[in-house]
Amino acid sequence: MKQLSLLQRFSALSFAIFLLLGVALGWVITSSFETNSLEHAKLLTAEFIRREAPRNFKGFDLTAPMKGPSYEKFAEESDHLKFSPDIQRVKVWNRDMVVVWSDEPQLVGKRFPQNKALRAALDGKLSSEIYRADKEEENLFKQRGPKLLELYVPVMNGADGRPGAVFEIYQDLEPLYRGITRQRNITWAIIFLGVGGAYLLCFSLVARASRSLESQTAEILETNERYDGLVRSASDGIIGMDRSGNIVLFNRMSERMFGCPAEEVIGKPVTILMPKEYVEAHTKGMRRFIESGENTMTTALLEVRGRRKDGSVFPFELSLSSNGEGERLLVTGILRDITERKAAEESRLRMSMAIEQSADMVVITDAGGAIGYVNPAFERITGYSRDETVGRNMRLLKSGRHDADFYKSFWETIASGNTWEGNFTNRKKDGSLYEEEVSVSPVTDSAGRIINYVAVKRDITREQALRKQVQTAQRIESVGTLAGGIAHDFNNALTGIMGFTDLLRMRFGKDPETVADLGEISRCAERAAVLTRQLLLFAQRQIVEPVNLNLNEVVTGLLKLVTKVVGEPIDVKAALAADLPTVSADRGQIEQVILNLCLNARDAMPSGGRLLLETTGVTLEGEFIRKHPCVTKGSYTMLAVSDTGTGMDEATQERIFEPFFTTKGPDKGTGLGMAVAYGIVKQHKGFIYVYSELGKGSTFRIYFPSIEAPSDAKSTGTAERIVGGKETVLLAEDDASIRTLAERILTQLGYTVLSACDGKEAIDLFHRHREEISLAILDLVMPKMSGVEAIGKIREESPGMKSIFMSGYSVDGIHDQFVLKPNTPFLAKPFTSAALAKKVREVLDG
Prior knowledge:
Elements: H1 2-56, H2 68-77, E1 87-93, E2 99-102, H3 116-122, E3 127-132, E4 147-156, E5 163-172, H4 174-233, E6 237-241, E7 247-250, H5 252-258, H6 276-291, E8 298-307, E9 313-323, E10 330-337, H7 339-357, E11 361-366, E12 371-374, H8 376-382, H9 386-389, H10 404-415, E13 420-427, E14 433-444, E15 450-459, H11 461-507, H12 512-538, E16 547-549, H13 551-566, E17 570-576, E18 582-585, H14 587-604, E19 609-620, H15 623-627, E20 634-643, H16 650-655, H17 673-683, E21 687-693, E22 697-707, E23 728-732, H18 736-748, E24 752-756, H19 759-768, E25 773-779, H20 787-797, E26 802-807, E27 815-816, E28 819-820, E29 826-828, H21 833-845
Parallel strand pairs: 17-19, 23-24, 23-25, 25-26, 26-29
Antiparallel strand pairs: 1-2, 1-5, 3-4, 4-5, 6-7, 6-10, 8-9, 9-10, 11-12, 11-15, 13-14, 14-15, 16-18, 18-22, 19-20, 20-22, 21-22, 27-28
Helix pairs in contact: 1-4, 11-12, 11-18, 12-17, 13-14, 14-17, 19-20
C-alpha cells in the first residue's frame, strides 16, 4: 500500500510537470509562429519588389508626384505588384519623403516627414510596421478592420547607391494569422498528444518499476528476515559497532559467549567485553582499522581475549569488517570461541614437546618404512641427525644380528595391523651396537589403510649390561653363599687335622717314615685350606686387613716372581704412572689378584708373547658410567694386565669370573683363579672388566677407589719363630677337637689354659680367675653367647683385657663387610701351631 500511494502521488506530480512542460513548450513554439511568418512574408514581398521594380519602372520619373497619363500608366505597370490577394495598397515614395504614386490618388503629393520606417527605408534598410486602419480609413480597404503589414522596400535606383525610391506595400495579415492559428492549433494538439503519450509511457514505466520495486522490496524484506534469522541463530558471535565503538548489534551466540543479554550491552562501548589489560590496545587497533578503511570494505582477522559477565577470560578469533563512511560507518565483528581449539593446540604442543623431549626414541615412517620424523632422542642415541635420516629407510640401522626370519615375522605382524613389541640390536652411526626395546604400531586412515608406522624405542644397552652384571653377581652370590655355608665347619675340621698333625710330628719326630706320612697329611690339609680360602675370597667372605697401598710398589715387588712364573718365552713389561693415587687394600690379596691374572695370561700364550702391567689414575664419568651401570662416578686407581694371547669369544667373557669355569683341560686348573680375583676386587669395592678379541689378546682392567693419603711403609718379613710364655689364657671354642688342640699347643708352650665350650662358660671362668687371666682367645661363632658378646661382658669389668678372635669365616661384628676393624687381633682358621703361638705372643707383648 505504501508503494501504491507513492505511485499515485508520483503520477499526479508527474502529470502536472508534463502539463507545464507541454504548455511552456507550446507557448515557446507558437509564439515564434507570428514572428517567423511575418518575417517570411516580408522577405518574400521585398524580394519580389526588388526584383520587379527596377525592370518595370525604368521609364518613370520617381522624383515628382505622378498625374494624368503617367499616373495611369504607372498603375497599369504596377498592377502586378498585387501578386497576392492579401496586398491591399501600394505607395511609391521619392527621396524627399513625398508620395509620387499611390493606388489611392488622394495621397499623391503628400509628404510624411515624421515616418520613421520610411526614413529607415530611404537609408537602404528594409523596415515594416503593423498597422490597423481606424474607422475613417475602413472604407479604403476591402474588408473591415483589417490588420495590415506596412512594408517599406527600398529600390536601388540612384548613382550614389542610395535608393531612388521606396515602395510601400500594405499586406492584409488576416489570412496569415488564420494559417498561424491553424499551425498553433495543430502544434498544441501535437504537443498535448506528445505530452499525454510521454506521460502514459512514463506512467507505464513507473508502474512497471513500481511493481519491480515492490517485488524487490518484498525480496529485500524476505532477505532481511532471513539475514536477521541467520544473525540471530549464527553459530558464531556477531557484534556490530558504530564509529565510536559502541555496540549496535549483539546476537544470541554473543549473549551465550559473554553470558549477558543484548539489552545490557547495546549502546555501550565494546571495551566492556574485554579484560582491562586489552582495552588500550583494542582502542588503538580499532582506530587504525577504521582509518585504514578508506570508505571501502576492509577485513582483518585477529586473536584476542574476551571477558564474560562472571569475570572469566576466554580466547576467541575475531574477524572484522567495515562498511560505509563518516557517521554511517558500521564495523562488524564475527567472533568464534576458540577455547577448545586452544586447549587442543596446547595439548598437541605438549604432546609435541613431550615427544621432542622424551628420553625414548620416537620414529614415524610411511607404510614402506621410509622415515618421516625422528625426535632428538633418536639423534642423540644413534648419532644420525634428522636431515640424515628423513626420507631414508630404517635399514640404515641394521646391525646384521637378526636373520631374515626375524624381519619377516616383524613385517607380517605390523602389516596385518597389529602392534609388534620386542628387542632390536641396531648399529649407530659410529658403528657401535646398541640394544633397544621397541614397540611399533600401525596408523590407519579413515578407510582402514595403513599409512604410517610409529615406533617408540628405548635404549636398553645400559640395562642389558646391568642385567648381565646382576645375573653374574647373582650366580656368584649363590656360589658364595654355598661356600660361606660350609667354610666354618670345613675350616674347623682342617684346623683339627693340621694341628694334631703338628702334635704328632713333634711326638714322633725321630721316626722318618712316620714324619713323612704326617707331612703328606699336612700337605693335603694345606691344599684343602687353600681351596677353602679361595672359595671365601671369591665369595667375598675372607677377612681383609687393609693398609694404605701404592700399587706401583706391589707390581714392582712382584715383577721378578711374575717373570719366573710365566717363563722366558713371555716378555714381561711394566708401565707405571708417576704420582699414582693410594688405595686402601689388603696387600696379600692384591698380590694374589696380580699373580692370578698373570698366570691366566701365561696360559693364553703357550707359544710366548708380551705381558704388560700398567697403573694410572683415572676419573670415571660420562660415557664410561653409561656403559658400566654398576660403576659410581669418582676417582680411581687403575691396574691393567694385558697379553697378546689367543683372546676370548663373548661366551667365554660372560663366564670368565664364574667359579670352577675353565677353558683348560680337567687336570690343568681348578677354575678358581679368575673367580678369586673377581671376589677380591669386589670386596675392595672395586670393578674388574675384560676386553678381548679372538686372536688379538685380552686386557683385564681393575679400578680401585683412590684415597687422599700416603701409602704405609712396607713391613719387613722375619723368620717365623715359636715362642711361649707363662701367662694364663682364657680359651673359648665350641668345637671340642679345636679346643683340645689349642689347649695342648698353648700348654706345651708354657701357658696356663682355662678352657670353655661357649661364651657364657668363658664369662664364668673369668669371674673365678679375673686376676689371673692375661689374654682371652675366643671363637666368633659359638652357641649361647658369641665371642664378641663375651668379650664385651668381660671388658665391662676389665676394660684392659686383651683378646684374639678365631673364625673360619664370620658375619659378626669384628669387621664391616669382612674388612677387619682396626686394632682387632684375628686368627683365621685353619691355623698352624706356629701361627697360634705367634699371634698369642704378638697380642701379649703388644
